[in-house]
Amino acid sequence: MVCDRNFFVVDCPKDDNGNYISIDIASIFPLSQDLFLEIGSGKGEFISAYGQKYPSYNLLGLEAADKRIVNTLKKLSPEKHPNVRLMRMYVDESIGNIFPAESVSGVFIQHPDPWPKRKHHRRRLIQPAFLNSLARILKPDAQVQISTDHSGYAAWILEEFLASPCFVSVYNDPVRIHSTFEDHITTWFEAEQRRQGFDPQFMLFKRI
Questions:
Q1: In the chain, where are the structural domains located?
Q2: Taking the complete model, does pTM exceed 0.85, yes or no?
Q3: Buried (b) or exposed (e) across 53-75, using 16+ Cβ within 10 A?
Q4: For 66-90, what is the mean pLDDT?
Q5: Which of 11, 24, 113, 183 is catalytic?
Q6: Within a 10 A sphere around the Cβ of 19, how many other Cβ atoms?
Q7: Tens of pLDDT along 41-68?
Q8: Is residue 24 flagged as an active site residue?
C-alpha cells in the first residue's frame, strides 16, 4: 500500500557530488537471497506477483517515475512482499556503480521506452555502455529477459546484445513472439498494447 512507502522505497545512494555509489544490499533486505532487478516497474503487476511466487528471491524494482512507484506500492504489502523493494532512479550505465560486481542473479526489462525517432536513439536504454555495466553486476550465467512491442527497437536490442562480448542469446531464434519464460506475467501495458494490435517480442540473453 502507499502508506508502506517507507518500508518498500529505498534511497539510491549518492556521494557529495551527486554521483551514484554502491549500495549495501544486506541493509536493504531482511534475508540474504539471490537478487533480481526489474528495470521499469510500470504499474507493478510483475514485481508484486513474482515476489509472492518466489519468496526465496530478493526483488528490487528500479523506476524513474514517482507516479509509477505509487502505482506499484498499491499492489504491495509488507506481509506478502517482505522480499520486494523499490528504488527511484533513472537507469543508464551508472547502474554499474550502484551494485557490487557479480551481485545480481537476473534482470527483467519489460517494454523499455523505444524512443522511435532517430534523433532520440541515443536515449534508448540498451546501449554498449549500459550492457558493459550490466555485465559487470551480473553473476556468470545470469539471464536478462527483455520484451518490447516495437519491432525497430527489438532489432536494435538484438544487435547490441549480440555485438557485446559479454552476452549470448539463450535461443538460436533469439526474437520470439511468445514468452518462453515459464512464469510469464502479463502486465497492464502488454495487455493494452496487444489490444491495440501491437504484439510483444521476447528475448532472453545470458551473461557469459
A1: 2-207
A2: yes
A3: eeeebbbbbbbeeeebbebbbeb
A4: 96
A5: 113
A6: 10
A7: 989 999 999 999 999 999 999 999 999 9
A8: no
